[in-house]
Amino acid sequence: MSILSERPAVALPPVTELGPRFGAEIHGIDLGRLDDDQVRALRAALVKYKVLFVRGQDGLDDAAQIEFGRRLGEVTAGHPVHDSGDVAPEVYSLDSQDNGFADVWHTDVTFVRRPPAISVLRAVVLPPNGGDTNWADSQLAYESLSPGLRAYVDTLTAVHDGTREFGYYLAQRRKGRGNLWEGEVFADLTPVEHPVVRVHPESGRKGLFVNPGFTSHVVGVSEHESRGILDILYAHLTKPEHVVRNRWQPGDVALWDNRSTAHYANRDYADQHRVMHRITLRGDTPVGP
After folding, report:
1. Is residue 108 annotated as a catalytic residue, yes or no?
2. Residue 253 lies in a domain
3. To pair with 47 at 20 to 30 A between CA atoms, which of 7, 40, 54, 212?
């Protein structure tokens, strides 16, 4: 099966679909040596499948990962708040020996006005086993809600707040001075509002755009109503039929559409070492129905 059935002349190798409509593996390509047509096909495949796993990228280092990202879109700073340390400023290093965990369902950096559109994650150091990552398809989750609930959540707005996760880090370790993000030094974690249902800017499909990591509450309802609404949406979003899971192998790279997914990294490898390097591509302001 070609990735782009409407443009069969622009082809990557056939994909292995991981579910009926969500997630795929691609074999036999080198992300550092794609031509322009292949890059466009890869981006289109990402919108379609939402998360892609590319095996055998052992030759990819930070510089090549960043260069690949630049061909796919506009690379941001690695993170608005975290110091890049001894890696390039475009790289966010998740090191288990420095509290680099992601064991809560989240969508990357939704606490800013323009959350990243795409994330690219590379396995650097893997534990002998464990440390799998799971992705949930927010569009399938939305579409499988009951019609009445879909109509209701279409009208809602929610607040996204990064202080719970990064407030202490920004204040204490960065002294209130984060990284250059969207042309300005990121100095505070002022909560932002996004629609609970986001319309994808390329596909036009609707998807749930709330996540336990950064969504604090629904606007215009009581605290108890907000918690009830969010709990229903979170439980539905992460149902097994909406989730794909990757068991990491050396040389793996995962790409996901941050506008239509949430993800969770299993923290089940005890004191074994795990390091992942992530880059993100600039997104746009979420728009509701």
Report:
1. yes
2. yes
3. 212
Our CA dihedral for 25, 27, 33, 38, rounded to 10 degrees, sits at: -60
Catalytic member of 79, 108, 194, 242: 108
Whether 106 sits among the annotated catalytic residues: the reply is yes
pTM value surpassing 0.90:
yes
Helix, strand, coil proportions of the chain in percent (round to 5)? 25, 25, 50
Catalytic residue at 278?
yes
pLDDT tens, residue by residue, 251-264: 999 999 999 999 99
* Residue 1 included in any domain: no
Question: How high is the mean pLDDT of the chain?
Answer: 94
Total structural domains in the chain? 1
Catalytic residue among 79, 82, 106, 242: 106
For the question of residue 160 being annotated catalytic, the response is no
Identify the CATH number of the domain in which residue 25 sits.
3.60.130.10
Q: pLDDT tens digits for 143-160? A: 999 999 999 999 999 999
Catalytic-labelled residue, pool 82, 198, 263, 274? 263
Q: Is residue 289 part of a domain?
A: no
Q: What angle do CA 116, 12, 51 make, to 5 degrees?
A: 35
pLDDT given at position 11: 67
Q: Is residue 4 part of a domain?
A: no
Cα 190 to chain center, whole Å?
21
